[in-house]
Amino acid sequence: MASPGRHVTVLVFPFGSHPWPLANLTLKLATAAPDVRFSFLNTAKSNGVIFSLPSRAELPPNVRVYDVGDSSPDDHHGQMKHPGELVSSFLKAAPDSFGAAVDAAEQDAGTKVSCLLTDAILIFGCEMAEKMQVPWVTLWVPTPSALAAHVYIDVINELRRESSGGDASTDDDNDKSLEVIPGLSMMRISDLPNEMVNDRDTSRIACMLREMGRLLPRGAAAVVLNSYAEANPTPLIADLKSKFKILLQVGCLTVSFPPPPPQSSISDTTGCLTWLDARDPRSVAYICFGTIATPSPSEVSALGEALESTETPFLWSLKEHVLAYLPEGLQERTRAYGKFVPWAPQGQVLSHPACGVHVTHCGYNSVFESVAGGVPMVCKPCWTDNMMNGRMIEEVWGIGVKVEGGIITKDRMEKALEVVLRGEEGKEMRKKVGELRERLVEAAGPHGSAEADVKALVELISTSRSARCNSSNLQQSWIALIA
């Protein structure tokens, strides 16, 4: 049972890939700190996916799952809102919804919260923690490069003003390097999330992210990265460490290094692994653009045409409504060497010997799954941190190529597939991704850097001496613990 006064309450941002890393971190910490109680607060819909009701009985005894009210998932016509509208609606109602859930968790536990662990995007957690007089610990899920961009948002805005002379920005302006930011010399203004560049003064999300970049350095007792020190430029990590009170890199929380071997009996309801078993080694293009991002209809059609013209064996995970964008008759014509599925066990697919390339939107978790499988990438960044990830893949790690011009055409995709699957450059990419994989296997091992930072985080959350401790004093003691 959890000891009195040690009660970590976890607040989740329930969109995209964000819930899973925080859920996995919670389970990791709960296993390592059995005397600490963990209350996991998330919307009912997201909780239903991550912790289904039957599976909750198998959770560690010190973990409890609570549903948070979700204000308005649909508009008044019953149609799903645009993702940006959903996020805005959620953020508007979240402080009150989470506040009520925290009260319920405290009452149920019979002890006050001693530490607030939240997704970094939920910046109201800072004020909530201050009112409760407890430390605020945050998890940053996307690439650390994007976190640096948010911290330096004022510098970036000034850079854009100087390069444009106060006028509307041009393509040359957007190609300007971010070398003024430590560790981001390879990045361009065009790699920044759209909400930072175009919607920075009007979007609720943009305003929230700008405030987050300013608040985390002074308000967060610790910032935890869903990443590895070995995967990022040394100047970038050194600078982030100088900005935050504590910076911990606990590894990619949704990917195992090394991954388990593919097994057709595990999570293979669509027969993907059995299908791959019949393919030649490193011959298959696995295509998936994540759960939210979708290329335009013309790009989907062009990708299908490229696969057909090159007769590239492929496994394509795409939503049912996107099938309508494919060229007429394509499914039948490619049946001998292609497979369309509504969902695939991605980690298992990428670790299969037949997988030769991953055509991806460059979501951070998907990138690490590719690395874990030793598979180079063809990159079609779509939004948020995707562009920065694509730049890292191509120019820093050298383990993939971006689609020329950022827009899929038949010719561009034919060229990219030829380079990665059949060219000498592709062989070099495969070698480099294997080398990166080995570095991360070591980092994730029992004596690696990620495991050391997990232990440090366990120590931090386990040494709260009182549910009403002074957060600033605790932050100082935590710094001394890991110095």
UniProtKB/TrEMBL annotation:
<keyword id="KW-0328">Glycosyltransferase</keyword>
<keyword id="KW-0808">Transferase</keyword>
<dbReference type="InterPro" id="IPR035595">
    <property type="entry name" value="UDP_glycos_trans_CS"/>
</dbReference>
<dbReference type="InterPro" id="IPR002213">
    <property type="entry name" value="UDP_glucos_trans"/>
</dbReference>
<comment type="similarity">
    <text>Belongs to the UDP-glycosyltransferase family.</text>
</comment>
<dbReference type="GO" id="GO:0080043">
    <property type="term" value="F:quercetin 3-O-glucosyltransferase activity"/>
</dbReference>
<dbReference type="GO" id="GO:0080044">
    <property type="term" value="F:quercetin 7-O-glucosyltransferase activity"/>
</dbReference>
<dbReference type="Pfam" id="PF00201">
    <property type="entry name" value="UDPGT"/>
</dbReference>
<protein>
    <recommendedName>
        <fullName>Glycosyltransferase</fullName>
        <ecNumber>2.4.1.-</ecNumber>
    </recommendedName>
</protein>
